[in-house]
Design goal:
The chain is of the alpha+beta class and about 180 residues long. It has a single domain (about 1-175), classed as Roll (Pnp Oxidase, Chain A), CATH 2.30.110. Helix content is about 20%, strand content about 35%. It has helices at about 10-15, 60-65, 80-90, 95-100, 140-145; strands at about 1-5, 20-25, 30-35, 40-45, 45-55, 70-75, 105, 115, 120-130, 165-175. Strands 1, 2, 3, 4, 5, 6, 9 and 10 form an eight-stranded antiparallel sheet that branches. The protein has a two-stranded antiparallel ribbon with strand order 7-8. Strand 4 (about 40-45) and strand 5 form a beta hairpin. The longest helix is centred in the middle third of the chain and has 9 residues, at about 60-65. The protein is globular and about 50 Å long. The termini are close together. The protein binds flavin mononucleotide (FMN). Flavin mononucleotide binds near residues 34, 35, 59 and 156.
């Protein structure tokens, strides 16, 4: 069962959960889920939105561009260690995260990307806008720390690439019960 929510009532919970890791789910080539710690709930062009930042080398980046949509899954009582380890440290290029993390997928209501039973607060989002970061406009100390250019950019946790910001319009919001 899905309990429809007013997403602004959960802004505090979502904002507190983010730095510990919530999930950004995509379905194109296959279903995949990655941990994100950066993002925000807001309003753009008069629409309720969720903004995510995805480095260019991530499997998720390829999926987002192909699918044009995503779901956000937020735990109600803190992150799950197994899910965090698999979805935050390994890539969909290498493994099937549904199997490895034991994700229980729940059929979506409006878009085609499922939610996850273990992380029940779900936002279904359609991508309205995407923009690559311009590293030259990021403060130098942050750029040096967050985007070192002298490292290998290919491993799953690589931090060399710039992020692309994706703005998703929230088209449905609910808690899986
Ligand atoms: C707590 C935490 C927060 C993270 N936040 C982000 C983020 O906001 N953006 C990002 O690009 N990667 C972030 N990552 C790294 C990705 O989750 C990781 O690289 C993942 O393996 C990518 O999966 P994919 O290649 O299947 O897309 C985070 C990892 C952790 C553990």
């Amino acid at each position: 069962m899905k309990e429809t929510i007013n997403v602004t009532d959960y802004a505090n919970l979502i904002t507190k959960a983010l730095p510990k890791g919530i999930l950004l789910n995509t379905r194109a080539e296959k279903f995949n889920s990655m941990v994100i710690g950066w993002g925000h709930l807001g309003t753009l062009w008069g629409k309720p939105t969720f903004h995510v930042y995805v480095r260019q080398g991530r499997f998720t980046r390829k999926q987002l561009d192909a699918a044009g949509e995503f779901t956000i899954s937020v735990p109600l009582e803190g992150p799950d260690a197994r899910i965090g380890k698999v979805c935050g440290w390994q890539s969909g290029y290498d493994i099937d995260k549904v199997t490895e993390a034991g994700l229980e997928l729940v059929e979506p209501s409006v878009i085609a990307t499922p939610g996850i039973r273990q992380y029940p607060l779900t936002l279904e989002c359609r991508i309205l806008y995407a923009q690559e970061q311009d590293l030259s406009r990021i403060p130098e100390d942050i750029r040096a720390k967050m985007y070192p250019q002298d490292v290998d950019g290919r491993y799953p946790m690589a931090n060399r690439d710039a992020h692309t910001m994706y703005v998703g319009e929230i088209v449905d919001a609910y808690i899986i019960r």
